[in-house]
Write the structure tokens for this entry.
Amino acid sequence: MSEVVPVAILVLAIAVILLAVLLGRSRRSGGQTAELETRLAVEQEKSSRAVALEEALRQADAKREALQRQNADLQAEVSRLNEQVAQERKQSVEKLELLKEAKERLTQEFKVWPTAC
């Protein structure tokens, strides 16, 4: 789409130039000067709008690209955090298993302790 806009601007610029040439000839020949001046003004307005639209499109493309980069960064951060959470869960399970084993050993020790005394 960005390639179409410069072509449109080029076409409008050519139209403006042609109208200016026709206007110059018209003045010399005493022809339809008012009509050509009106058409020239319309084409100049179209040309300026095309330039403004091209700039707006360029800005929108830049913003879209920035948002895509930000999205990629955020997705990478989510992946990193998910991995961190998974590792923390694994560590928690391992710690709970150690606590369970320690509890069982202590229970066994306290059962044996009164008979050992």
Summary: Residues 4-89 form one domain. The CA atoms of residues 14 and 88 lie 67 Å apart. The first helix runs from residue 4 to 29.
